[in-house]
Amino acid sequence: AKERDRTHVAVFDHQMQALASSRLETESQLGGALERDELRLVYQPIVDVHTERTIGFEALVRWQHPSRGLLAPAEFMSIAEETGMILAIGEWVLREALMQLQLWRMDVPGARDLFVAVNLSARQVQDPEFPAAVARTLAQTRAEPAALHLELTESMVMSRSDVAVQNVTALRELGVRVSLDDFGTGYSSLSYLHQIPAHTVKIDRSFVAAIGEDNASATSIIGAIVGLGRALELDVVGEGVETPQQVEELRRLGVRYAQGYLWSPPIAPAAAQEWIREKAV
Ligand code: C2E
Ligand code: CA
Ligand code: CA
Ligand code: CA
């Protein structure tokens, strides 16, 4: 048994080392990804579940890695966050998404009400310079503040400094819209709602996924979020909708907006432009 244990430890050790070195490698490559223009944004439509019209898009970052192909955020964003590279990446994402929005709005008359939703990181939300940076980027791209939705999660703002709350207030004063992402999964969603005045809550996809799995509590929680949304005049978006049954249930519960593979996965800008021509006007 001792022999086997030692082998296990050796294998484990080897795997840990491989993991650590691939992490280091990813880290050093990510450092140059922006200059080499390897980051991409893909866009997922957000639809009105009554009219099926597309009202906006969520921008999601990808890394076109030189050898590993197109990487999802799970493969590099935690490294970006830990090293602080996320600040430069976040700035790029914001500018790119707003420039793209302006191109679409020019290209498709009638698509003028379209918005773009951009995900924030904890570091951005905690950065005292962030609202000023957003204001600058809005001015440079001539985008309307209300056409920018900034998505943040509970863990980015709760039990940290007041900077996050001040930042959200400053962003609201700019006219930017604030969305609470992954809503319902945090520890204290109610006090969070109270602390962060938002325009939109996005029901976490785990609740949507539980619809139809004979899960009465998921349905009750979604119903409660819709009730909160009504009382606080928040828009409610259901995330991760994959089946007609799920959207049917969301409609029944009073959820007005949704996104998910049922309509479309995140798509490249050119495909999104085609999508807008057909579904947003
Ligand atoms: P999120 O903000 O909750 O984004 C939704 C994720 O769910 C996306 O994964 C999207 O591709 C995926 N998704 C959409 N519809 C469905 C569906 O019907 N079923 C399922 N199973 N999944 C669906 P993605 O693109 O891999 O992004 C993962 C996370 O990475 C995002 O979660 C967000 O937290 C983060 N992220 C993405 N882009 C950015 C960015 O530009 N900046 C920052 N700070 N974070 C980002
Ligand atoms: Ca999001
Ligand atoms: Ca989410
Ligand atoms: Ca998330």
Automatic annotation (TrEMBL):
<feature type="domain" description="EAL">
    <location>
        <begin position="23"/>
        <end position="280"/>
    </location>
</feature>
<protein>
    <submittedName>
        <fullName>EAL domain-containing protein</fullName>
    </submittedName>
</protein>
